[in-house]
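Can anyone check this?
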Amino acid sequence: MAGLIEQERYACAIGALQTVVAIPRATPILHSGPGCGTMIAGFFERSTGYAGGNTSPCTNFSETEVVFGGANRLRSIIENTYKVLDTDLQVVVTGCTADIVGDDVASVTDEFLDEGKPIVHVETAGFKSNNFVSHSNVVNAIIDQYVDKYIEENPVRSEKKLVNLFASIPYQDPFWKGNLVEYKRLLEGLGLEVNILFGPYSGGVSEWQTIPRANFNILVSPWYGEKITKHLEKKYGQPYYHFRYLPIGANETTRFLNGVIEFAKEQGVDLDEEKALKFIEREEHAYYEEIDNLATFLLEFRYGLPNHVHILHDAGYVVGLSKFLLHETGIVPKEQFIVDNTPKEYIEQISADLKSTSDKREIPVYFDPDAGKAQDIIRKTNHSGRGLIIGSGWDKELAKEKNYDFLSASLPTPYRLVLTTNYIGYTGGLRVIEDIYDTVLYTYK
């Protein structure tokens, strides 16, 4: 008998409608019951975009469609969406009922393709996977059904310095907008051109059309999104540089950027390496100047600051934050909890990445989407000194119970408003420090 999962911190597969919402002027069309869109809008919050959240067109799949099929209903919704919304791309995502009934969604969307309308379909039934997985399915569907149509104008690997970046999952990562913009700034600082594909600083669907032009791809993720880069490697012969966790702070950001430089050289990119290294040096200098300014504060408050941390997040954040906090703030990672339902084939590598954080201490790590179990484990821990929990809004009361400091950094996060904040890179590391110590200082009267 299957057990219940408490405090699940991701959505079912149809949650990948947020992947569509994050593309400027793209519209998801839900071929599902009305509750699916409401559920996703409630989970992600403040995620409307151009036509998302409660405004997403939906077929409102009912008993009638279950009995007679929903193809006619879908056709009508698509037609009316084109009349009402000025969209550059429509993506039909399916719910459980549509997939169980077996509606031929492709035949409906093909009718509009024959009229020259930009439209894509993808199966996202909740019983098939979660939104970490279906994010890749949606991206690959757009590549196969939309991007491919522009291949003649965008010759494969024709721009040596152009790269496609696949990193934060829109909206699932609360800091996705800021993170993508910072990746773009850092990579352009090396002399590359970057397709970030999502958010207001991307070029929208016209940028997606240039995906084949890229010389190579960059994947920043422990596992989610690798299906995209492997697909592009097979489809267009584009190799990819894989950095398996978030580069936060100076150490890992410099490691990430140096790795990109070496990989770019292997792909025949004529980078001005001296200029790229000077850019890294300048960024490091600005970072360490702020750390130097922080030294007096840290000295004065050394007995009143957190000395250990528990993180409840996806694998990329758990590993990235653990490395950053241990080596650049002195906060020791204790029990860590990866709650993204990591596929079994990636667990060993992620564990090794976390283990490599320190050769002097072991960092216990638990892979379990049941965050309720994670909280029970934390309740039973007893570490000396002041503790910190980095997690979702659900962990706030646990922090109070343990008398720990608390930083909300994952979904759901009702206690924090995130707009364009980034947690990656040099500036992202400084922002993490600000957020942690602001929380601590707030407790002093």
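Reply from J.R.: I decoded it. The chain has a mean pLDDT of 92.
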